[in-house]
Each structure stands twice: as C-alpha cells, then as structure tokens.
Write a structure and sequence with these properties.
TIM Barrel; 2 domains; alpha/beta; about 270 residues; disordered N terminus
C-alpha cells in the first residue's frame, strides 16, 4: 500500500492551527473569549429607556433599557430579555455614594469633595484606583451575574471637575481603560459616559456612548467618532424640548430621548419609537 507522504505534515499543521485558535479564542485572563459574544450596538435612532428610580416599567416601547445595577433584580433583566430587549447596568465608578452597601470598602484617603448637586456623593481619587479596585470589580461582577448585556460606568470624567484631587487627562484615560477592560472580562459591553473630550482616544476601548444634554450644550459632535466607528450613541435631554433636538439626532444617527432629571419610568419622550 502506498503511503501518503503529506499526512504527517497535515497532522502537524492541524495541531498548530488548533493551538493557534485556542490562543486567539482565549487569552490567559479570558478576555478574548469573553469579548467574542459581547453585545455591541450599532448606530441607531430607535428609542432607548433611561430609568434609575422606581420599579422598572418593562412595557416601555424601547429595545434598550438602562437601569440601576444595585436596585434592579435579576428577574427584571430576565423579563427584559424575554421581550427581546437589552439591558445596560448603571453603576458609579468614579464617585463614592454614602447609601451603597459597599461604602465601607472604599478607603477614606481616596474620597474627595462632594459632587456638586449630589450631596450623598463624593469624587474618588482615580489615580489610586487600585486601592478601591476590589469593590469596583465586585460591582461590575454583580451586573454580570444579573445577566446585564452592558455596563454604564458613571462619573468617569473627574478630571473635568473639582474633585479635591489633581486629576489629569492622562489619569482619566488610564482609569477609564481599566474599567473597560474589567467589564469586557466579564462578558459585557461598556459605555463611555459624558467624556466627550476623550471620545476620540477611547472609541477603540468602549463599545458605545451614553451622553446627557449634548444637544443643549452643543457637545454632540465630540461623540461622532463613535458613529464613524459603527458604534451607537444613546443621548438624553432634560431641559430641551424634543422639537429642538430630535431632527438633529436623527440626522447624526443618535438614539435620543427626552426625560426628567429624576429618571423615573415616565415621562418617556422618544424621538423615534
């Protein structure tokens, strides 16, 4: 019987290919494999819902819901999924809240000035985020355990605010990229929140953007890099009437809604249903 001299080479090549796929599919920390199935919304003008207070009204006509990670139970996320909807988990990562169950896990040395307008919150010294990395990781994991599709880490623009610490542009980039990496490790997408000046530098690290009042303050253009990269921008206005911004939102492919500052389920004023 004639032997096929190519079989040993084919076998070796198959082994090498399998090994290569294993390496690509799963890095040492599991990041690559976790990212493979992450929800990454594309630019859209369809409605999203932003509700932080009160029982979540799953009947709202929106395909994407952003709700509080601490207060909303897993069963609500399961219900949203059964309706074909996606859920974004809202948590604070750049500020300390005195009403959260994990408040004691943040060292006093990293807690700074009060967040203007929010007396129960204080800014964190993100330069030393390793000192409070544990509770932040636990918060992100909480969202993953509840089945959230994505994460919206709030207050990731401390360098623009009077925090009590000399935070720099570079400090913020480092911290924000760490947050994005920790989120992706746990199989969720991550939003860049209200950090327009860094959008161009962070568009590769974040999967979409969540922005407040960019039409009112003429800041929406800062988030166009996300649209150009094929990533969604979810925007909300509180003081501007829909008639003043919906036309512009549709033109630049932003998913825009009108809400009240307290962010209960209603009023809910979508530009496009």
């Amino acid at each position: 019987m004639q032997t096929n001299r190519f079989l040993p080479q084919i076998a070796v090549s198959s082994i090498l290919l399998a090994a290569l796929l294993l390496i690509v599919g799963c890095s040492s920390d599991g990041t690559a494999s976790a990212e493979a199935g992450i929800w990454k919304p594309k630019p859209t003008t369809k409605a999203w819902q932003f509700q932080i207070q009160g029982k979540v009204d799953t009947s709202i006509d929106a395909k994407v819901f952003e709700v509080d990670g601490f207060d909303v139970p897993k069963r609500t996320i399961t219900k949203l999924h059964s309706q074909g909807k996606k859920a974004i988990c809202y948590i604070d990562v750049g500020s300390w809240e005195n009403y959260r169950s994990d408040k004691a896990e943040f060292p006093k040395s990293v807690i700074g000035k009060k967040y203007e307008g929010y007396p129960d919150e204080r800014w964190l010294d993100i330069r030393r985020y390793k000192l409070f990395a544990k509770p932040i990781r636990q918060r992100i994991q909480m969202c993953a355990d509840k089945g959230f599709d994505g994460l919206e880490p709030d207050n990731i623009n401390g360098y623009q605010n009077p925090t009590g610490f000399p935070l720099t542009f570079r400090d913020q980039l480092k911290f924000n990229r760490w947050i994005a990496k920790e989120t992706h490790k746990r199989g969720m997408s991550v939003a860049l929140k209200n950090d327009g000046p860094q959008a161009k530098k962070l568009v590769k690290d974040f999967d979409y953007a969540v922005v407040e009042q960019c039409f009112q303050y003429n800041e929406c253009g800062q988030y166009r890099p996300f649209i150009r990269a094929g990533k969604a921008v979810f925007s909300v206005e509180y003081e501007t009437k829909n008639s003043k911004f919906c036309g512009r939102a549709k033109k630049i492919k932003f998913a825009a809604i009108g809400k009240e500052y307290d962010l209960f389920a209603r009023p809910f004023r979508p530009c496009v249903k």
